[in-house]
Amino acid sequence: MTFTERRCCECGEGTIKLLTKAGRRRAYKQFAALEVPAELAIPTCDHCGAEWYNDEHADAFDAAVAALHGRLLAEAQEDPSRVAKHPVRLRWSVEDAAWIAEVPSLPGCMADGRTEAEALEAAHKAIATWIEVANER
Ligand SMILES: [Zn+2]
Q1: How far is the CA of 124 from the CAs of 22, 73, 117, in angstroms?
Q2: Which of 34, 55, 72, 101 could form a disulfide with 119 if both were Cys (CB 3.0 to 4.6 A apart)?
Q3: How far is the CA of 7 from the centre of ligand 1 (A)?
């Protein structure tokens, strides 16, 4: 991976440097905010914190999260008859300090967890419960 430090176009003051950092998140496919692996270096402004992905880094990101994404997808496909029909939207909530899993196709169906996988698993249980309750009506 080649990288040249340069001035940040966002703030015009900082310098773009390759940074590794824990706790970064980024939208990926149907996931609203996947955790970026801490060891993945991403060009980041040392002044305003803007992240500058180019194709090379986007590829590295894709490769780094592909395994996680694959695992989440595999879990989502455990029971295709009911779970795959209901996409789960994951987002990090600063307020709750937890991952919030929302199921837009099922009103009021939500779950949370400390990790994406945990939130997704909880969402699957919530989906199952939601459908069971709906069927009883
Ligand atoms: Zn900047």
Answers
A1: 27, 12, 11
A2: 101
A3: 8
Ligand 1 centroid – CA 46 distance (Å):
7
The alpha carbon of 4 and the centre of ligand 1 are apart by a number of angstroms equal to 15
Range of the domain at 32: 6-75
Whether residue 125 has pLDDT greater than 70: yes
Task: Calculate how far, in angstroms, residue 83's C-alpha sits from the geometric centre of ligand 1.
Answer: 41
**pLDDT tens digits, 23-82:** 888 776 666 677 777 788 888 899 998 888 777 777 777 777 776 667 666 665 555 555
Q: Return the bridge partners of 30, or none.
A: none
The count of domains in the chain is: 2
State whether residue 21 is helix, strand or coil. Answer: coil
- Residue 38 inside a domain? The answer is yes
